[in-house]
Amino acid sequence: MNFNYSKKDKLKSKKLIEQLFTEGKAVTVFPLKLIYLKTNFENNSTLKTGVSVSKRLHKTAVSRNRIKRLLREAYRLNKTLYFNNSSTSYTFMILYLSKDGATFDKLNKDMKSLFEKFIAKTSTT
């Protein structure tokens, strides 16, 4: 199993991020929201993912960065369980919506249920 979150898997393109927010669909499991868009990549990757925490809800950079680190770690550990056999390419943006702080255990559990809800929604369409 490949548990890495390499540079080619990170969402960095401004054009792709704008397209994601204008054309993408969303799945929510509070406090997480997953915005996704089916895309094709040149560099042979199947998923490109970004994480975001609102500056309005979390004033200090320390709290935002901690939540983003926890989100990336929960994503990294769970992506192989849910997307290892996926042949479709997706762009993801994971948003943290709550005002409260986060623990890794809660985020990990919520990330799993978010991915399950995403798979259920995309398998029906």
Itemize the secondary structure elements and their pairings.
Blueprint (H helix, E strand, L loop, with lengths): L13 H10 L1 E5 L2 E7 L8 E7 L7 H23 L6 E7 L7 H21 L1
Parallel strand pairs: 3-4
Antiparallel strand pairs: 1-2, 2-4
Helix pairs in contact: 2-3
Main attributes of the structure:
alpha+beta; 4-stranded mixed sheet; Ribosomal Protein S5, domain 2; 125 residues; 21% strand
Question: Could you explain the architecture of this structure?
Answer:
There is one protein chain. This protein is an alpha+beta fold. The protein has helices at residues 14-23, 61-83, 104-124, and strands at residues 25-29, 32-38, 47-53, 90-96. It has a single domain, classed as Ribosomal Protein S5, domain 2 (2-Layer Sandwich). It has three helices and four strands; from the N terminus they run αβββαβα. Strands 1-2-4-3 form a four-stranded mixed β-sheet, sandwiched between helices. α2 crosses α3 (104-124). The protein is globular and about 35 Å long. The chain starts with 13 loop residues before the first helix and ends with a helix. The mean pLDDT is 90.
Q: State the helicity in percent bands.
A: 40-55%
| Biggest sheet details | 4 strands, mixed
Proportion in β-strands:
15-25%
Q: Looking at the structure, what is the overall shape?
A: globular
Order of SSEs: HEEEHEH
